[in-house]
């Protein structure tokens, strides 16, 4: 018997693929490998063609939908369309974050009210907005994951307002898990170690964070997006039944230090 879960005919929504380096893309490929039917969402029209060519690499044909998570109507419409086109929703991978680059360096308190609100809106509130919109369409044992980072638990230089956003996201995971648990829906987060993606590009001292982890983490190496995706598969499939409200660190053990 294979322990690799089979997700044939089950619909999963993956939100947050910018390019082939995105953690969400690794998650999509892993779910596709397991036979899942995929819906991929992108933030705006200009990202559509890039995503179309990536989606062409998948085994199953995916549905592509635009969904800017700052817009409640767009989110509701997206989930209504998903239900119409693909039936009940077995799971969602929320892999979205944003903060103004100017606030991701220098002093934490130099940020503006507007920068704070935008980072919290896109990076934390959006999880609740998405879960709320998907509520009528969830399968009876659906599972939701989001991506978080250690900078929400403790101070990491330059992570600044994004750390506050991740703290809000981590807490939202707990409140959502408690509210949706009675409906059979699980909500968890994966705290990923540093991975070179478009978001990571040109922000903070990313290279020194990578090398610090390599020198000090129990496994003495960095993690890959594929390793994050296999933990994602565990949480999104029946293998993770029984786990909710949890943050699993996929970071070579760095967080224990
Ligand atoms: P990517 O840049 O590949 O992904 C970030 C995604 O956020 C993009 O696809 C972007 O969409 C999307 N996004 C931003 N604003 C919006 C919006 N308004 N509506 C919809 N989507 C939006 O980077 P990662 O894969 O690294 O990031 C994914 C998640 O992983 C984030 O939550 C990040 O905080 C988290 N994470 C990343 C780590 C890392 O080291 N890379 C470590 C720990 C956590 P678009 O391109 O279409 O604008
Ligand atoms: C301590 C670390 C070093 C980097 C500091 C801050 C990183 C913040 C992540 C945040 C999501 C980055 C941005 O929002 C970048 C944005 O201002 C500019 N980029 C874009 O607009 C691109 C084009 C799009 C695709 O990006 C987004 N996000 O929409 C943290 C490191 C070690 C770990 C990381 C990178 C964590 C994380 O949360 O991503």
Automatic annotation (TrEMBL):
Name by which UniProt lists this protein: Enoyl-[acyl-carrier-protein] reductase [NADH]
Gene name per UniProt: fabI
Enzyme kind, highest EC tier: oxidoreductase
Keyword line: Fatty acid biosynthesis, Fatty acid metabolism, Lipid biosynthesis, Lipid metabolism, NAD, Oxidoreductase
Xref: CDD domains: ENR_SDR
Pathway: Lipid metabolism
Catalytic function, reaction form: a 2,3-saturated acyl-[ACP] + NAD(+) = a (2E)-enoyl-[ACP] + NADH + H(+)
EC number: 1.3.1.9
PANTHER family (alphabetical): ENOYL-[ACYL-CARRIER-PROTEIN] REDUCTASE (PTHR43159), ENOYL-[ACYL-CARRIER-PROTEIN] REDUCTASE [NADH], CHLOROPLASTIC (PTHR43159:SF2)
Family, as annotated: Belongs to the short-chain dehydrogenases/reductases (SDR) family. FabI subfamily.
NCBIfam families linked to this entry: PRK08594.1
GO MF entry, a single one: oxidoreductase activity
């Amino acid at each position: 018997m294979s322990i690799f879960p089979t997700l044939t005919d089950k619909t999963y929504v993956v939100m947050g693929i910018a390019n082939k380096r995105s953690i969400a893309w690794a998650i999509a490929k892993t779910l596709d490998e397991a036979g899942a039917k995929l819906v991929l969402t992108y933030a705006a029209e200009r990202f559509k063609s890039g995503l179309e060519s990536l989606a062409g690499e998948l085994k199953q044909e995916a549905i592509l939908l635009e969904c800017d998570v700052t817009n409640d109507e767009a989110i509701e419409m997206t989930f209504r369309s998903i239900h119409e086109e693909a039936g009940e929703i077995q799971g969602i991978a929320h892999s979205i974050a944003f903060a103004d680059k100017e606030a991701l360096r220098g002093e934490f308190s130099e940020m503006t009210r507007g920068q704070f609100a935008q980072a919290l809106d896109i990076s934390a509130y959006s999880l609740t907005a998405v879960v709320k919109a998907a509520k009528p369409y969830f399968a009876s044992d659906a599972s939701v994951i989001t991506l978080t980072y250690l900078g929400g638990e403790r101070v990491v230089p330059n992570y600044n307002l994004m750390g506050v956003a991740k703290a809000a996201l981590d807490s939202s995971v707990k409140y959502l898990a408690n509210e949706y648990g009675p409906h059979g829906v699980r909500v968890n987060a994966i705290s990923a170690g540093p991975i070179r993606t478009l978001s990571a590009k040109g922000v903070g001292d990313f290279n020194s964070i990578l090398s610090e982890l390599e020198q000090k983490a129990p496994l003495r190496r960095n993690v890959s997006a594929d390793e994050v995706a296999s933990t994602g598969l565990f949480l999104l499939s029946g293998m993770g039944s029984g786990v909710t409200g949890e943050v699993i660190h996929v970071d070579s053990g760095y967080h224990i230090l």
